[in-house]
């Protein structure tokens, strides 16, 4: 507490001090020491409420009680007024709150009448005291504002500046616009189109799924308003993500997809789901259902018709909410310019992300929380997303008490300090006010905002469902509940904006237009227009990616530069100078991380921007990368790749939050709007990628087939069996191989630094033939001598799909080879480093570095190099039901066509990828390696017995 002479208490401050004083009087020990001594010295606080109260000692005990009560009451209205607001259009009584009754605070309306309105704010501030005479008038105003059809849920906002802004925005009602004349009619026209489209589809295509918007129709005018605001602010792109509910209506009335196309898809459903490209590809291009398709459309500005904003609706799978992080990544990419060296430059006004959520999905799906967590992180922020829950108060058939543990569907947002407005979807003006509010908040604070648009669902989950089976009472109400169009039309009649019967005429007109389009489908469904990209691009050959020694030396030198005054960590710097100082160095070759740094540097020099993210990626899980250095004294970061004089494009590297699904989705989305960039996501260990499995299944491997959406995202997945137990061993190579078809991805597992270098460079070059690249990356190989590469491997040649056994193929020994061990990844080092190899003169070991698309020609060439071959052994470190075996076996058999024996060496099928015991691991691997070099009759069962004996 301050010195009394400096302290005047007003508004909320006053309420707080008076509360403290009350507590002090009841029990002096209940307040802290400083507060106690303040009251002991100065007595009751000076209210400053009215001029007559010049001395507090004159204030009667009754006055103080009243003021305390009034202050508490005012606070309750502001914080809990939403509990008394009529938010449910179906008329459910609001739950209310006892603190919203003045008598709860021991005050009456008469008491409030004796107090000045300034009690609710500091004198001279706030809009309400300026227009009211007494505290009663002021609290009535607060009730009117806070307890009507909008619920302002801001009590969780900690940042004072934002709190004050939010309060002022609510109480000034500056976003509440009473619509008059043409504006009011325009809204009626808009609601008429929304409502009539659903009704038309319902009748014309009876029983077909459309996931009607009816009950939350206002979302369409709200979206249009947001898009127009963005347009007015010069924002070029709105990125929109939503699920099935209301999507057709949004396509028609926000993105201007012609009715003819929508009807065409209903009339010929198969049209929207395949294209002529499918014929070329034997139906590999599978397409998607109409309520998942993405589209881009333009919105015109409100005032200037020459202003346009691109509205980009991301295609999405059925997997609810999984499009959320994808939209964020798309929005971020649209906000960054990447054509100069350094970090990309972000302009948060360059795109506006909007996410539409379901009331069951938003609190239920974990990806939502992961996505919300991104919004203030430097590597992921998008200047604020506007969220709208189209809250129809039901999941499929599940009601809220079974769907969430929170009061409101939106409560998760509160943990992220996102302001929330709950609004009754039957109040069009309040709904539009919420949209204006959200936009202004985003513009001011560049943060997320949530609108919980509370409506209902006119039909079942889809139009074929009978909702009365599960929600009979609710649906009895819905049956006779007027649509928001009808409600607004009536209101406009009451306000004399339209004449009786005018609203029905509007409906008839729209209906006639639709009927006309249906009968005369002049614009035939042009399936190519549904797609944003060609669905199929053949893969091309491996490009030349060598870099001259001079260029590499220059880049290397620049990477080792440190700015003036920068004090690197001495140990790390010594290590760097020693291992990366000389490219030809001690003859040991360049290691993995060094190769990566040079690849990145050369890619930047060639003008391709790079974005690299993942958990602890700046340093690297295995302390190998150190892309960001920290001054040993100040901690200040320094990123050599930002300061590369040769760079012609930006470099971004970020440690991600502890998330897989959202960050993976974000990077996928980023690639969609930054097609020129090389975007890499790194898993901490490859295993953890399966926490992002829906993103892999639903977007990364299938996005092109479903939506013609190409992505060159690189997944770096540490993989390899090093005795670390069931986790940290396997990136589940088998899963990716199983998902591979129709050249949809590239899958590789390389074993040398130079191979990694060339592959990264190839991925950066193959911009016209973009495919996601799934790359198994090493752990122990990061520093293994066999994985290091000589300078000439970087300065010559290119990526090789298969690495033949140079010892056996090139020393004239090829004729003696009877057995070819094929393998991929780290097991190669165990095979060639084994005693068995030393004693063996008939076995060659070749590495399949590129698994998909299956490098048939390269493998055939290797096999062809050994004329006396009798068998091929596929050796892998994974269990038989994992790794590449099930992928390789049929392909190898087809390739050798019965001429050669094909044999498996690896672990038996197991439910868990790896062993917990290091000892067991070592023994099992030793046994496996021996088995690979042994004769065919050494069966797997015998090997199993041996392992068991050893264990
Ligand atoms: C990840 C996921 N799990 C389950 C489903 C199946 N499903 C489809 S719609 C739906 C109910 C969604 O309710 P809500 O989020 O309230 O949206 P609404 O359809 O009511 O607009 C469910 C469970 C799904 N599509 N995605």
Residue stretches low in confidence (pLDDT < 50, at least 5 long) are 1-7, 50-59, 271-285, 527-533
Strand order of the largest sheet: 1-9-10-8-7-2-4-3
Question: Major beta sheet, specifics?
Answer: 8 strands, mixed
| Radius of gyration over all CA atoms, rounded | 34 Å
Count of DSSP helices? 37
Attached small molecules: thiamine diphosphate
* Span of the ends, CA to CA: 71 Å
Overall average residue pLDDT: 90
Strand content: 5-15%
Shape: globular
In brief:
This protein is α/β, with parallel strands linked by helices and 951 residues long. The protein is built from 37 helices and 24 strands.
Please provide a written account of the structure:
This protein has 951 residues and is α/β, with parallel strands linked by helices. Mean pLDDT is 90; it is low at 1-7, 50-59, 271-285 and 527-533. Helices cover 40% and strands 12% of the residues. The strands form five sheets. Strands 1-9-10-8-7-2-4-3 form an eight-stranded mixed beta sheet. Strands 14-11-15-16-18-17-22 form a seven-stranded mixed beta sheet, with helices on both faces. The chain has 37 helices and 24 strands. A hairpin with a 7-residue loop joins strand 5 and strand 6. Bound molecules: thiamine diphosphate. Residues 245, 318-320, 358-361, 365, 390, 392, 394-396, 461 line the site of thiamine diphosphate (TPP).
């Amino acid at each position: 507490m301050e010195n009394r002479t400096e302290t005047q208490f007003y508004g909320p401050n006053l309420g707080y001090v008076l509360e403290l004083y009350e507590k002090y009087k009841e029990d002096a020990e209940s307040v802290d020491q400083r507060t106690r001594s303040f009251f002991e010295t100065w007595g009751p606080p000076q209210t400053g409420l009215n001029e007559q109260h010049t001395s507090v000692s004159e204030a009667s005990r009754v006055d103080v009680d009243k003021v305390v009560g009034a202050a508490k009451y005012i606070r309750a209205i502001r914080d809990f007024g939403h509990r008394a607001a009529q938010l449910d259009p179906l008329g459910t009584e609001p739950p209310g709150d006892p603190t919203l009754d003045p008598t709860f605070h021991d005050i009456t309306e008469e008491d409030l009448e004796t107090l000045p309105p300034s009690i609710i704010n500091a004198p001279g501030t706030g809009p309400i005291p300026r227009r009211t005479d007494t505290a009663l008038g002021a609290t009535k105003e607060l009730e009117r504002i806070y307890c009507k059809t909008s619920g302002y849920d801001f009590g969780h906002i900690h940042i004072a500046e934002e709190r004050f802004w939010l309060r002022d925005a609510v109480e000034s009602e500056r976003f509440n616009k009473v619509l008059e004349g043409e504006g009011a009619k325009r809204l009626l026209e808009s609601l008429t189109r929304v409502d009539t489209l659903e009704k038309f589809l319902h009748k014309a295509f009876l029983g077909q799924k459309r996931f009607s918007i009816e009950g939350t129709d206002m979302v369409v005018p709200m979206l249009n308003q947001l898009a127009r605001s963005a347009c007015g602010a010069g924002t070029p792109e709105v990125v929109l993500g939503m699920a099935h509910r209301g999507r057709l209506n949004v396509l028609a009335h926000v993105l201007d997809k012609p009715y003819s196309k929508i009807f065409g898809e209903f009339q010929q459903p198969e049209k929207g789901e395949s294209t002529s490209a499918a014929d070329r590809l034997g139906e590999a291009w599978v397409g998607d259902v109409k309520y998942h398709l993405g589209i881009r459309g333009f919105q015109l500005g409100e005032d200037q018709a020459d202003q346009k904003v691109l509205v980009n609706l991301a295609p999405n799978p059925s997997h609810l909410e999984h499009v959320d992080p994808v939209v964020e990544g798309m929005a971020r990419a649209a906000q960054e310019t990447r054509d100069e060296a350094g970090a990309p430059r972000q302009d948060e006004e360059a795109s506006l992300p909007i996410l539409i959520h379901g009331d069951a999905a938003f609190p239920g799906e974990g990806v939502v929380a992961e996505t919300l967590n991104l919004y203030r992180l430097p590597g992921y922020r998008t200047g604020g997303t506007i969220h709208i829950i189209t809250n129809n108060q039901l999941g499929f058939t599940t009601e809220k008490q079974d769907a969430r543990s929170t009061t409101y569907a939106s409560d998760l947002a509160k943990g992220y300090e996102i302001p929330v407005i709950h609004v009754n979807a039957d109040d069009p003006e309040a709904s539009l006010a919420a949209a204006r509010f959200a936009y202004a908040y985003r513009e001011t604070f560049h943060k997320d905002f949530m609108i919980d648009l509370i409506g209902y669902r006119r039909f079942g989950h889809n139009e074929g469902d009978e909702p009365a089976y599960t929600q009979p009472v609710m649906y009895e109400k819905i049956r006779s509940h007027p649509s928001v169009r009808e409600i607004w039309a009536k209101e406009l009649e009451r306000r004399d904006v339209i004449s009786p019967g005018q609203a029905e005429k509007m409906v008839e007109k729209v209906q006639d237009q639709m009927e006309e389009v249906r009968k005369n489908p002049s614009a035939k469904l042009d399936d190519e227009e549904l797609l944003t990209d060609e669905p199929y691009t053949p893969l091309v050959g491996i490009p030349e990616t060598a870099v001259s020694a001079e260029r590499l030396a220059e880049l290397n030198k620049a990477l080792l530069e440190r700015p003036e005054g920068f004090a690197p960590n001495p140990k790390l710097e010594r290590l760097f100078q020693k291992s990366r100082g000389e490219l030809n160095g001690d003859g040991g070759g360049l290691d993995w991380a060094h190769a990566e740094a040079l690849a990145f540097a050369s890619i930047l020099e060639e003008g391709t921007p790079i974005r690299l993210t993942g958990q602890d990626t700046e340093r690297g899980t295995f302390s190998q990368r150190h892309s960001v250095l920290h001054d040993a004294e100040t901690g200040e970061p320094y990123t050599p790749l930002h300061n590369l004089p040769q760079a012609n494009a930006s470099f971004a590297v970020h440690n991600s939050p502890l998330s897989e699904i959202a960050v993976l989705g974000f990077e996928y989305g980023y690639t969609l709007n930054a097609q020129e960039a090389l975007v890499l996501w790194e898993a901490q260990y490859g295993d953890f990628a399966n926490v992002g499995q829906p993103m892999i299944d639903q977007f990364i491997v299938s996005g092109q087939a479903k939506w013609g959406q190409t992505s060159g995202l690189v997944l770096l997945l540490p993989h390899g069996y090093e005795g670390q137990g069931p986790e940290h061993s396997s990136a589940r190579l088998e899963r990716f191989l199983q998902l591979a078809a129709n050249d949809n991805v590239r899958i590789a597992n390389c074993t040398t630094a130079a191979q990694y270098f060339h592959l990264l460079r190839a991925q950066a070059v193959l911009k016209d033939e973009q495919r996601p690249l799934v790359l198994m990356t090493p752990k122990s190989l990061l520093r293994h001598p066999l994985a290091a590469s000589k300078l000439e491997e970087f300065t010559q040649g290119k990526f090789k799909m298969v690495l033949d056994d140079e010892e056996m193929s090139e020393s004239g020994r090829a004729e003696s080879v009877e057995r070819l061990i094929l393998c991929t990844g780290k097991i190669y080092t165990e095979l060639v480093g084994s005693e068995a190899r030393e004693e063996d003169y008939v076995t060659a070991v070749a590495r399949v570095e590129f698994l998909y698309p299956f490098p048939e020609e390269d493998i055939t060439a290797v096999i062809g190099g050994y004329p006396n071959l009798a068998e091929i052994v596929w050796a892998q470190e994974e269990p038989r039901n994992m790794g590449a075996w099930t992928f390789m076996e049929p392909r190898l058999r087809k390739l050798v066509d019965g001429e050669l024996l094909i044999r498996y060496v690896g672990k038996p099928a197991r439910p868990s990828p790896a062993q917990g015991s290091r000892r067991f691991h070592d023994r099992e691997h030793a046994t496996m390696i021996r088995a690979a070099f042994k004769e065919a009759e050494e069966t797997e069962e015998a090997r199993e017995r041996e392992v068991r004996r050893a264990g």
